[in-house]
Protein 1
Amino acid sequence: MARTRYLVCYDICHPKRLRQVAKTCESFGQRLQYSVFECPLDDLRFEKLRAALDEIIKHDDDQILFVSLGPEGSKQIFRIETLGLPYSERSRVTII
């Protein structure tokens, strides 16, 4: 089964949930920054990660982003999925 690379990024409001989310992500991928992981996942492991994180977070306060980088070596456009607070697309205009 082919793997897709995901960036898993999170904003968790409570320290206990934050530690639980980090520990869960560590078991599925490699930490890139404090709240950012790169996780190569097939469909089954992706669903296992989502289910594990779904049980930890408080959906009204926390957010987890799953940014699909596509299959390794692919130039596919990325896809963003969330748990908890919805992702809101921001404009790409920079005002200085």
Protein 2
Amino acid sequence: MRDSMQESGPFVKLLAAVGGAILLVLGLMFSLVVLAVAVVVGLGVLGWFWWKTRELRRHLRENPPPGRERQSSSAGRVIEGEAVSVEEDAGRMTSNHSPESPERRPPD
């Protein structure tokens, strides 16, 4: 079995390590370029969208939609309330013998 496996010398190991390091550096450089291009394209799209919607934002600022007039925070209306969630057992809902339910009476 050892005859079929050829042992590599220190020169081959050094060459493999240098090749791996070069590939790692090239991969990092490529990923940085891709990231930089993605950021530039994203900022460009965001700037284009901001530029295209500037007239709409100005119009909404000057003429708010009905029911959304500007109010100061102290002039707002506060509605207080309380909610209770009641969960019933599925077995009680289908049973005709539930003592809690006066509408459900056993057949006579």
Protein 3
Amino acid sequence: MEFKMTDSFIKENFLLQNKTAERLYFDHAKGMPIIDYHNHLAPDVIADNEPFSGINEIWLDGDHYKWRAMRSLRIPEKFITGNEISKKEKFDQWAYTVPFTVGNPLFHWTHLELDRYFGIKTLLQPSTSDAIFEETNMQLSQLKPKHLLNNMKVEMLCTTDDPLDDLSHHQKIASSEEKSPEVLPGFRPDNIFGIQGDRYLDYLSALGELADQEVRDFDSLLVVLKSRINYFHENGCRISDHGLEYTYASEFSNADADTVLKKRLSGSLPSDREAGLFNSCVLYELFVMYHDFGWTQQLHLGALRGNNKKLKRQLGADVGCDSIGDFSQAKNLSKLLGMLNDNNKLTNTIIYNLNPSMNEVFATMSGNFNNDKVEIQWGTAWWFLDQKDGMELQMKTLSNMGLLSKFIGMLTDSRSFLSFPRHEYFRRILCNMLGKDIENGLLPNDLNFFGSMVENICYHNLKEFIKYKK
């Protein structure tokens, strides 16, 4: 399956369907710096700043979006994640896959990335695989991670880091005299909620060693967590993140959580009810700490992870066998945010939903607790939804039920250093939406007003929302 044409379809007005959209994008959106406030880039790669080994390392290795597409074509796993196959054979299988991805955002992303990073304006398919493989590898031999980030006008990015991380790579980046974006840690304590896991006591022991405090009860656990938050804060962290199926919001008391933790410390596994109580208490106490440190907090809700147990056993987590879950969200989220609000411990919060049937739920939830000191944002279309239709639906719903003008815009949520054209993708879609409404007479034809609005959504709103400067 191949295209007869070889030239890329991505032209200067890609996704921009009228002149007003073009003016909004080229005069206002295109030149704005990027703040990528949630991603999974490896800080050690940025700190070491060595050229990549080739296109496979930066483009195919670890990209579960591509892996899912290749499996859907029944490509043998050895060509996707195997170690016995050459890099060229793996790349050829991806080139074979690309024409089949039409209609999937992978098709747009692939060709945007080839163009924006390498100047390649050729469609990737089997007949062009050899040339593109050679050209990208040749260029990457001269390109370093910081160059790629600087070329995309990345001003700041927040990585995703476990409380156990010593943040030495962030420290190395901060002390380097070489030009690079500001790279700040993001506090992601998901492992603290795995109280029923086999390695949980080992995890608590490791946390305690870092804080020079043995975890022997719930109070000492809070001391350890606060110590790690303080350490992250000293190293520039101003944002936390939680990837949960749903918000923990069981009825709890600290005394009850203490009982559950001591049961686990004694070697017994808590019941599901006890684990829910403990996790609810920990989540609430963490959110109180984030408030006290002046951080922004994020909740990524609704992923059903690790569905293919066999594949997870073979390869681990985040390998392309996660999907959208159908969990109930509104009541628990309202309960947690309401408790924090009642106790004046609610800080700036971003909530993301993975299930698009809950767009209206999250759009309306984000407006419940705003005041002159605290802002709750409904985050950008996430994961399976960060494609053209998903972004448009999210922004239209936000317009109908909130304030699009105050939106904090796009993030990559990616492990790839080649993912930053997704900001361009988002910005073109935003400008096209506004341009269509203006030309259809649904909005005033005031390009100064809407140009400023576009600049705010792309950059200024977020910079004000996340006060990340040390």
